[in-house]
Amino acid sequence: MSKKLLITGASGFLGWYLCQIARKEYSIYGTYLSHQIEIPGTKTLKVDLTDENQLKQVFQDIQPTAVIHTAALSQPNFCQTHPQESYKINVIASKNIAELCAGASISCIFTSTDLVFDGKNAPYKETDPVNPVNTYGEQKVMAEEEMLKCYPMTAVCRMPLMFGAATPTAKSFIQGFIETLQQRKELNLFTDEFRTPVSALTAAQGILLVLDKQINGSIHLGGRERISRYEFGKLMVKIFQLANGKIKPGRQQDVKMAAPRPSDVSLDSSVAFELGYSPFSVKEELEMSVSPFPREMQH
Prior knowledge:
Elements: E1 4-8, H1 13-22, E2 27-32, E3 42-46, H2 52-62, E4 66-69, H3 76-81, H4 83-104, E5 107-113, H5 135-150, E6 155-159, E7 162-163, H6 173-182, E8 186-190, E9 194-195, E10 198-199, H7 200-212, E11 217-220, E12 227-228, H8 229-239, E13 246-250, H9 270-275, H10 282-290
Parallel strand pairs: 1-2, 1-4, 2-3, 4-5, 5-6, 6-11, 7-10, 8-13
Antiparallel strand pairs: 9-12
Helix pairs in contact: 1-7, 2-4, 4-5, 8-10
């Protein structure tokens, strides 16, 4: 295969799914930092993306035809308390990757977040002004701006809340939910936090569609439905048959977190839908999370 795809953050949740489904069309090279991983059909490389020389060397050695940059420190609470450490990977490394892609004139895709918005005017279109309320959101906005400034051909994929079956080195938020409920403990979920979630499998297919269509600028890859954390949890209990688990409704303002959270960052993804991006309903996306690959070809 002459098409070489470099995926940063292959040991991360979304990165792993991308490696799984992109290998049909590309020779895949995946980077990791601390979580060594073997992925069938992927050459994995230990790379510190914050080290500019290492990054340049990787581009020189692989000479990729496209790059999907998913690596990040993405826990909002961690970014809030470790702003300098997260800035290095979330902003500086992202800018350096865009510069290297610009220098080679190759496709560059960056995974951003719905948390670039303040949650007051959902659903959000690509053209709506950003106004993050926490450090993670701020860093993603800076990365978007820096990357597009030095390489306008960059595609900025704003991703929603993602879930799915755990990978060898990463989990999504639902694994913690399931564990809590299986232990018959109470799970507190917000009734006043709304997102447009999708499975990681669907998200990865959306990103590869953006790459295939050679889109540039911002594009939203949210799900079809706006749903609260609480309603999502209730749906999950039904699908995973966690009848013994108890979900308790709560409110954002009653829980102290390091990073402030916006209340509704639902994405309007109609631009992507028109391109052929086709998420299932939240219920179906959750059902796919039980065994994610058999229905893959339906997309």
